[in-house]
Write a structure and sequence with these properties.
With about 450 residues, the protein is an alpha/beta fold. It contains 18 helices and 13 strands. The longest helix has 23 residues, at about 180-200.
Length: about 450
């Protein structure tokens, strides 16, 4: 009889903790899903937890075995609030029933490790039940009673304010981070600065792309970059060599383009044909014109916190995170992938934004345990749908950098269907990170143009 009441009370507490009481339906709708008897118990739980919320929170902190309270999943906190209230304050509920119901809800709604975590805390609460109850009574004697505001549809002891709204489902539907929209904002800023540069110096900022060979994907990327340049008032230069070109021929072209005063930013489109030394060829791109931000000098300056042209995709990732309104300061950020063009530089940029950063890779043990602690999760490993919803912390910001083509379709490194039910924000594939890379390339080009003057 009380199971539905417990579950609805848990849903209410969880949604309030995640969104501050905003959602799709009213408190009254939640209560209409229950019988009168269930409704009474639901209101008893909500009012009781509300009155003892601070004390219960302190109890959870006490027995959380060193866990930072703010890093305990909000789902687990809501489950614990109900169970601890039943154990400490409702004599007609056997402790075993409270624990078993809590564990069942945890198995349904939370992560694989949560049941053991919750069981450990509740075992400690039961062991010290008498002492905790006495402690609460002493606190209550020294605290004035306060009457919460009520709404028309609720009984006298309902703690929900009139305008509070809750969701009936615990699963979250993540907000989609629209990479195209964010990229358009960046490009609008680029266009403004490009026009300012042209008025002051009599020419447009210039971006040169060197394409060696006839790789179809590379040809598409080069064409897209040229189109983006045209929209942003950036001059586009394209230089092509056949796949049969020698290394010396490619290096000679790189040097010639680098010496052109009308070229402010340049890049060598990757991948290069087999037999060409990528690192050697890229080393001839001057760091002050390195629009991709891949050079050793720019990577080193990024690490040192010096002004530089930094890698485009990581720059775009940071912009996408900022677009959600998330303050990175103090947040736990996990980067899955350690490549030189995404994983490593984005980890440094997250550090620059005062996040606490962990970098994971193919040799990382217990990867899921680490990703589930991330407030911000960046995934760039090149494996189709490798990260699933049960590896994500509820309410996290998830940035999927993956571009995996399979059967003519494009997939990310994150399983979107399951992840979007857990995360607060998530990037789609395509339409997430991809558009940002070109936008930041143009931003680097205009930045380089001004720096050269």
């Amino acid at each position: 009889m009380r199971r539905t009441a417990r579950e609805n009370a848990f849903k209410l507490l969880f949604e309030r903790s995640v969104s501050g009481g905003t959602g799709d339906i009213t408190y009254a709708v939640l209560t209409r899903s229950m019988t009168e008897e269930e409704n009474d118990y639901f209101n008893l739980l909500i009012s009781g937890v509300n009155k003892s919320e601070t004390f219960i929170g302190d109890v959870i902190k006490r027995y959380a075995r060193g866990f930072d309270f703010d890093r305990i999943y909000k789902i687990d906190r809501a489950i614990l609030q109900i169970a601890i209230y039943e154990i400490l304050f409702l004599d007609d509920v056997p402790d075993k029933v409270a624990v078993n119901e809590a564990l069942e809800m945890s198995k349904i709604y939370s992560t694989d490790n949560s049941p053991s975590f919750i069981n450990g805390i509740l075992a400690s609460v039961i062991r010290e039940k008498a002492e905790l109850t006495d402690e609460y009574k002493k606190l209550a004697e020294n605290k004035e009673e306060s009457n919460p505001e009520q709404c028309d549809d609720c009984p006298e002891d309902c703690p929900i304010e009139e305008n509070d709204i809750v969701l009936t489902e615990v699963s979250m539907t993540a907000k989609i981070i629209d990479g195209k929209a964010v990229a358009e904002k960046v490009k609008a800023e680029v266009k403004t600065n490009a026009c300012l540069f042209a008025r002051e110096y009599g020419r447009k900022p210039g971006l040169a792309v060197i394409l060696v060979g006839d790789d179809p994907a590379s040809a598409i990327y080069v064409r897209n970059k040229a189109a983006a340049c045209a929209k942003c008032d950036v001059e586009s230069f394209e230089f092509r060599l056949p796949a049969s070109a020698s290394e010396d021929e490619v290096i000679s072209l790189v040097k010639r383009v680098a010496s052109d005063e009308n070229v402010d930013g340049m890049l060598v489109q990757l991948p290069l044909p087999e037999g060409l030394d990528e690192k050697k060829i890229l080393s001839f791109v001057p760091p002050e014109k390195d629009a991709d931000g891949f050079s050793a000098q720019n990577a080193g300056n990024l690490l040192l916190g010096n002004e530089c042209l930094s890698a485009c995709t990581p720059q775009g990732i940071i912009e996408l995170i900022k677009s959600t309104g998330t303050d990175m300061c103090g947040k736990r950020a996990v980067v899955v992938g350690r490549s030189n063009i995404v994983g490593k530089p984005v980890a440094v940029m997250l550090l620059e934004n005062n996040a606490t950063v962990t970098v994971c890779h193919s040799k990382t043990n217990n990867l899921a345990d680490i990703t589930r602690e991330a407030d911000i999760l960046v995934v760039a490993i090149g494996k189709k749908e490798f990260i699933t919803g049960n590896m994500i912390k509820p309410g996290a910001v998830v940035i999927d950098v993956g571009m995996n083509r399979n059967d003519g379709k494009l997939y990310g490194d994150v399983e979107f269907s399951s992840a979007s039910e857990v995360a607060a924000f998530i990037t789609p594939v395509p339409g997430g990170v991809g558009p940002m890379t070109v936008a930041m390339l143009l931003k680097n080009t205009v930045k380089a143009a001004f720096r050269a003057k």
